[in-house]
Specification:
Elements: H1 4-29, H2 35-55, H3 58-75, H4 83-104, H5 114-124, E1 158-160, H6 162-173, E2 177-185, H7 192-203, E3 207-213, H8 216-220, E4 227-234, H9 238-246, E5 251-258, H10 261-271, E6 284-286, H11 307-338, H12 341-368, E7 370-372, H13 374-377, H14 380-391, E8 395-400, E9 405-407, H15 408-429, H16 433-438, E10 445-454, E11 457-464, H17 471-480, H18 486-491, H19 494-498, H20 523-533, E12 537-543, E13 547-555, E14 560-568, E15 571-576, E16 580-587, E17 591-594, E18 597-602, E19 605-611, H21 612-615, E20 627-635, E21 638-644, E22 646-654, H22 659-662, E23 668-673, E24 679-683, H23 685-691, H24 693-703
Parallel strand pairs: 8-10, 15-24, 19-21
Antiparallel strand pairs: 1-6, 2-4, 2-5, 3-4, 7-9, 10-11, 11-13, 12-13, 14-15, 14-22, 16-20, 17-18, 18-19, 20-21, 23-24
Length: about 700
């Protein structure tokens, strides 16, 4: 039986190899059938086959064996790459995904692979033709040489005994070669017995292994160090055998040399012909170079670490940030009360150094939690391809910025919103070929997914060159569905009408034309809700007839944020800076009343106004001042002014949950511990702005 850790490693590698197959099959479909692409798929299928065989997953082994066999035909130019073949390959990848779910217990029933196996066999029986690459030359199987890292360690040697000598001598007479190999595995190689099994199975494709050190029983039980030695009989040349061994993952070095028994024996006989007695020759030993002598020693600089450990470290750093803030406050209090400049300077120096160390530690742990958005983006080319095929549309799908890094907790959330946006762009945004021709657009639609950094945030955009959003059509559909009244429709600007796409239940699709691609159009409200739940924002820019661009702005991490600290009454509140538009210091006379509600006019726009104390049911400490502080917050296109007593300033805070005892409290997103040990409540700006939305519409109507 395998441990949970070994099973987790297998599943992680399986996911990686399935993605490699899917990505490279897409390249095949785009007529980029280079030898490297074909070899990548072959190697990935081969790795899955070997690993699943060791783990005992027979159906997965059988399926990947057929895939490997199929690509062996392709790479030797005995099979043509056609649309049918690509479809079968995608079907096989889907079935691999089903088998993975079956292994993890997520599948509802046993997965049947008989149909896809039959289809693969049918494709293999198709008469082959020689395929040419973009340069007009025939495809050749040409595995790439691997870069070998050097390690200082003891290597397994192998002795050529009498039995091996006889086998090698007979093989040489028949025109075969004998090679001695020393294979060094990566120092951080997981499940070495699996890699060794894959190596032996791979080499047996081109020859027969007659001896190993350690013996096969010890290899299967992982009773060996970081290297194994073996002797193989093969008709292939020495470079082919070496490259084939290097094609197995997590192998750092392969040293190989010819073994020639007959030449050795002939020389021995010649040298001993004048001697009266024949001297028994000592057994030959395959001695390969010491790896440590080949160059400077290199060491592995990465380790696997459980995500929970990173989360714990992040929590501890959060506590350190709190204590740093408390120390800074203590310095100020100490200096003001005791006035001892020398002691205050010493404490200030300690505080500054602690602050620097804390900041550096925080940055490094945040980096450790970061993952490239490629983790999510790599899923989408296949999805876009399938949807486009199903709808009969041609899509030029471009991905940029896959190397952009984001907190893994954020990455786990953004997948579904991006799926909604991409599906809607393909289904509702990009026109079909006939309509695009009529409009004078290229037949192939344009769809781009891009990630980039911007002012301490990550911005992900989804852009298409489709229909855009027609405000008149949106208002018409909203009226039909009862989401707005005729009076509201008449008073709406185009931008306000377009905002209706985020209303629950809104769709521009006719009931009898609902597709299974983007459903009934109920996804956009989910997109905004999920993104705002992680303190992100969704914005868009659209031109009817030319296209739409959605922009998602996300924080780099969910654990620590910058906030605007304010005071109201005797309490301190935090507004996440993401939602703060501006702060104002206005005369009370500038505050107007419309329909019993307070408003303020900002650059000609009516903005609803609330007092923070009224929202959370407590009194203000200032009632007689001629001027008041107003924090303008916004979510989407909606804005709300909140009157507070004092503005404290910006501060980095650690978000803490309110706990299961309090649960979800309307208007609050959590809490933070301040430098003086007091608790500051974090305002849930989104819920406040949303609740003020309907009131804002009435105020706008009354003001106009």
């Amino acid at each position: 039986m395998f441990s949970n850790e070994e099973i987790a490693i297998f599943q992680e590698e399986l996911e990686e190899k399935m993605q490699i197959i899917s990505d490279n099959v897409l390249l095949l479909e785009q007529q980029q059938a280079t030898p490297e692409v074909i070899q990548e798929i072959f190697r990935a299928a081969h790795t899955i086959k070997g690993s699943s065989a060791v783990m005992g997953y027979d159906k997965m082994t059988e399926l990947t064996h057929e895939l490997e066999s199929l690509f062996d035909e392709i790479r030797h130019d005995r099979l043509e790459i056609t649309g049918d073949l690509v479809d079968v390959l995608f079907e096989a990848v889907d079935k691999l995904s089903d088998l993975k779910d079956e292994i993890t217990g997520n599948a509802n029933e046993n997965v049947d692979i008989s149909q896809v196996l039959q289809r693969i066999k049918q494709v293999k029986q198709t008469p082959g033709v020689e395929t040419n690459n973009q340069y007009g030359t025939k495809h050749q199987y040409s595995p790439k040489m691997s870069i070998v890292s050097d390690y200082e360690q003891s290597l397994a040697e192998i002795e050529v005994d009498d039995v091996s000598e006889d086998v090698i001598g007979e093989a040489e007479i028949r025109g075969y070669h004998a090679y001695g190999l020393q294979v060094v595995f990566a120092e951080d190689c997981q499940m070495k017995e699996v890699r060794a099994f894959l190596l032996i199975e791979t080499l047996e494709q081109v020859g027969e292994i007659i001896k190993t050190n350690p013996q096969m029983e010890e290899i299967q039980s992982e009773h060996f160090n970081n290297s194994i030695a073996l002797i193989i009989i093969s008709q292939s040349d020495i470079d082919q055998v070496k490259n084939l061994a290097l094609s197995v993952a997590e192998i750092n070095a392969v040293h190989i040399q010819n073994i020639r028994i007959n030449n050795t024996l002939e020389q021995e006989m010649k040298n001993s012909s004048d001697r009266e007695n024949t001297v028994e020759a000592a057994p030959a030993v395959v001695n390969l170079p010491n790896i440590a002598d080949n160059g400077p020693k290199k060491t592995i600089k990465t380790v696997r670490i459980d995500v929970e450990k990173l989360n714990t470290l992040m929590n501890l750093v959060g506590e350190l940030v709190i204590e740093r803030t408390r120390l800074e406050r203590f310095v100020n209090v100490f200096e003001s009360k005791f006035g001892s400049e020398d002691i205050a300077e010493d404490i200030l120096e300690i505080s500054s150094h602690l602050g620097k160390v804390t900041t550096d530690l925080q940055d490094e742990i945040m980096k450790a939690r970061m993952l490239p958005v490629a983790q999510v983006f790599n899923r989408f080319p296949r999805m876009v391809r399938d949807i486009a095929h199903k709808l009969g549309k041609e899509i030029d799908f471009i991905i940029e910025g896959k190397e952009t890094e984001l907190d893994r907790n954020v990455i786990e959330v953004i997948g579904d919103p991006l799926i909604h946006l991409l599906r809607n762009s393909i289904d509702h945004g990009i026109e079909d070929a006939k309509e695009r021709q009529r409009l004078g657009k290229p037949v192939q639609g344009f769809l781009k997914l891009k990630a980039s950094y911007s002012e301490g945030h990550i911005v992900i955009t989804v852009e298409d060159d489709g229909r855009g959003m027609d405000a008149r059509k949106i208002k018409k559909k909203a009226l039909q569905r009862g989401l707005i009244t005729q009076e509201q429709s008449d008073r709406m600007s185009d931008r306000e009408a377009q905002e209706l796409i985020f209303a629950p239940g809104f769709s521009t699709v006719e009931e009898d034309h609902v597709s299974d691609i983007s459903g009934r159009g109920v996804g956009m409200d989910i997109v905004r809700t999920q993104i705002e739940n992680i303190n992100g924002t969704v914005d868009y820019y659209t031109v009817p007839g030319q296209g739409t661009r959605f922009s998602i702005k996300l924080p780099l991490t969910l654990a620590i944020i910058r906030a605007l600290m304010v005071e109201h009454g005797s309490r301190t509140y935090a507004f996440p800076l993401t939602y703060v538009v501006e702060t104002l210091y206005v005369n009370r006379s500038d505050i107007k009343t419309i329909r019993y509600s307070k408003v303020i006019i900002i650059r000609g726009q009516v903005c609803p106004l609330k007092r923070l104390g009224d929202i959370f049911n407590h009194e203000t400490s200032k009632t007689d001042d001629d001027k008041v502080y107003v924090v303008i917050v916004g979510s989407g296109d909606r804005k709300l002014g909140i009157i507070v007593d004092e503005l404290i300033g910006e501060q980095e805070i650690v978000i803490k949950s309110l706990g299961s005892y309090l649960g979800q409290v309307e208007g609050l997103a959590g809490a933070a511990i301040l430098g003086d040990g007091k608790v500051s409540l974090i305002v849930d700006v989104r819920s406040l702005v949303r609740s003020a939305g309907s009131e804002e519409a009435l105020l706008y109507a009354a003001a106009n």
